[in-house]
Amino acid sequence: MDGLKENKVYAVNRVAVRVVPGKLAYAERNQIAIKENWRKQVAAKPALFDGEIFLAPRAIIENGKFSAEFQRSSFATLMFWRVDQSVDRPWHIFGSGVMVSAEGHLIAARQANHGALGGKVYFPAGTIDDTDIFDGQVNYETNMRREVLEETGIDLAAARAEASTYLVTVNRSIALFRRYYFDISTAELVGRIENYLAQQEQSELSQIIPISGSNDLDEKSPSYIHAFAKWHFHNAD
Question: Given pLDDT bands bounded at 50, 70 and 90, which one contains residue 161?
Fold first, then answer.
């Protein structure tokens, strides 16, 4: 993975991420710093919850196959990981099921302020949990469908999923994108999501943002989102 160019889109024909036993060495050697950073984060945003997440000490891509090994860790570890600049950090690997409207627009969303990434603009997505793991293997299609449904009320099963998965890496993060094509307009898709959000007591999202071109994104989105959006609009079917 270290040989891949950052913020470049790579097609992969197979994703094989498995969960392996053992404690994450990164978390073990940074215990004190993780606890102190978590204390500061919770003081700023009391709604944060220290649940289980997964990080990967190793990840490779070879002959179109992406492989990695996850170990269990904590959200507090991930929050420290985000501010840590050491080069030996484990990989943070996550899926992103990208909704595409009939016009070819991408559906992004602004994160609600109470969350860890409040104000940032992403495609609706989330971390792996145990419901996404089958016989020790991570199913990213299940994860994408679950996260998009939870955050937006939209079921990706109603869309046409493309066959390929696309990988973008930057700063020890690996995003696995897959586009889901809907036969409904941008306005209708956004309207359905907004109606769903209006019924939520505390939504994870504060604004739905349709992206009709890569220039619609600004500094509120991370570079890998920019990279994928630019690639999409230059390579749209």
Answer: very high
